Structure formats: C-alpha cells, structure tokens
Here is the input.
Amino acid sequence: MKEEIQSWLNSGADAFSGILLLDKYCPDQIFVRLMKLNPTKNRSKIIRKLAELANLDYEIKPKKAKRETFPRTPFREEFPFLASPGCPIELKALVTDKFSSFYRYRDLHEKLFDCTSAEECADVAAALLDNYHENRMIYAELEYYKKHGSLLGKHPVFDHYRKMKALHNLTIKELVLKQGKLQHNIWRIESEIKRGDKPHLLEDRERRLQEKKAELAEVNRLLE
Here is the structure.
C-alpha cells in the first residue's frame, strides 16, 4: 500500500486515481463516498487521507486546473504496432473504445461542475470514475503489448471475443438454445436501460447490450 500511494503522490496525485486508491485502502466508506461527490474539489482531502493511511509526510502543492488534452505524442506514433497487419483485432477494437472513453471522460468532467444537487453530482462522479477506470484498463493493454509483444488480456473485450470464437464449436441444438438465452439477455438489459434507475450503470449496460447483440448476430449467421 505505502509504495502504491507514494508512487501516486510522485506522479502528481491525480484526484480520480486517488479515489480508486481510497476505494482500495480506506476503511471509512462514508468519507470515500463524500470524496466521490467532487474528486477535483476534494483533492487536498484525498491526499491527506491517503498520506495518513500510508504513514507518509507529504506537503500539498496547489494543482492548477487545466483542460485535459491528448498526449503530445501522436497516438499512432506512441503505439506503432496498431498499423501492423498482425495487430490483434481486440487491440484495434480497444483503440476505438479509448477515443470514445476519452471524450466521455472530458464531457463528464465538465458536467461535474454544473451539477445542481448532491445526487446528480454523485451520479456524474460515479460515471466519471467508471470511465476513467475503463480508459486506464485500455491503456494498460496497449502498454503491455508494446513492451512484451503479447496480450495482457484483462480487459472485458477479450472475454467477449473468446465467447464469439466459442460459438463456432457449438452444435445446431446448442446454437438454438444459445439464441433463446441471448434474446432473453438482450430483453432484460434493454428493460434495465429503459427504467433509468441507475444512471451510473448506463455505460456498462449499453456495453453489455452491444456485446449480446453481436453474439446473437453471429449465432443467427451460423444457424443460417
């Protein structure tokens, strides 16, 4: 824990990364929930709490607010293997998701300062943290392949592609059963989205819906 928090402090103590560390190490969940209402505004409190948990002396330096931008190094130059014909299709799919995730993160970050209630702020902060975590997972996959030339395979997209490949090994009877199950799953997820009762889960539900629809389309193709 101490090394991880020290590394976070040394890298600039990003507020949203700090929230992830609080989730992991802070036993006071009421404090964690309060910090999630506005991570940027609560950055100093997050730093103090994590430094206290790790028994570290740390002087808080003001961090000027700035609009997040893409790295100066062009993305395709940072990860040149993406242009290679041998680049795994999973990584190419993740690149599309990464850019979408970046824009959602930027929009949610701006929306956070326009919240008119604590409930709205909590929902936006939860969605922002989920999006930030998604972005970091994608970056970790790309960095790992860049360094090792092999797949890390921890992002959910790899599980999705494994499921798609597994469909080709099913019998006709198994495909028919799978078809019915997928149709039910799609109906259930669409019902959850229409209810709109948990806005912070919307992005995850939409992702799962697209995955199930893609699986169903492949099942239908195989049956035809």
Notes: Confidence is low (pLDDT under 50) at residues 63-71.
